[in-house]
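Quick one, tokens below. Sequence please?
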């Protein structure tokens, strides 16, 4: 039987993820509707890029990421844009007047069916301290845009794990998806 046509078999299901076997493939799926997460590309009025630092249990390490979260995990049917602004507020203490989905694609296509939406947040204003919800311990970093890449390299040298999507997010600050510089 081909791994493409085999019936999926759930071998474990938790609150947020399930483990599936389909033919010779083993992979995870998100259990919330849509299986989608949003990564928020946010630049403050002072031209600072917002990053979040937190301890990630699967890596047993502190990470640097752009703000992100599951779409529709709180309110079923919540749009990507609404979810992104909610996560931005919760994690960083900043809100946005506008959120635009730039692209949606897989996060790790060989290991998970999860997809991520890159969302550009604009019209930012500070409304609170950030730091995440009661289960999270998030440190917010606002780094000058022209220094953000160098800062990330410094953090990597200090032993932080860096989400590879950071580099795509930084590129999207400066460019349209077709490669044209943003003006």
């Amino acid at each position: 039987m081909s791994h493409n046509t085999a019936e999926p078999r759930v071998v474990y299901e938790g609150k947020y993820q399930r483990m599936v076997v389909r033919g010779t493939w083993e992979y995870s799926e998100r259990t919330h509707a849509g299986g989608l997460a949003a990564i928020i590309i946010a630049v403050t009025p002072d031209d600072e890029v917002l990053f979040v630092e937190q301890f990630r249990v699967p890596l047993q390490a502190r990470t640097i990421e752009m703000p992100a979260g599951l779409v529709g995990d709180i309110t079923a049917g919540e749009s990507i844009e609404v979810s992104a602004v909610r996560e931005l507020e919760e994690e960083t203490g900043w809100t946005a007047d506008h959120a635009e989905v730039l692209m949606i694609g897989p996060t790790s296509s060989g290991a998970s069916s999860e997809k991520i939406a890159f969302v550009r947040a604009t019209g930012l204003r500070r409304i609170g301290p950030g730091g995440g919800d009661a289960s999270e311990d998030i440190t917010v970093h606002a780094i000058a845009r022209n220094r953000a890449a160098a800062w990330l390299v410094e953090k990597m040298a200090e032993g932080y794990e860096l989400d590879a999507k950071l580099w795509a997010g930084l590129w999207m600050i400066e460019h349209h998806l077709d490669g044209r510089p943003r003006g």
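The chain has a mean pLDDT of 91. The radius of gyration is 17 Å.
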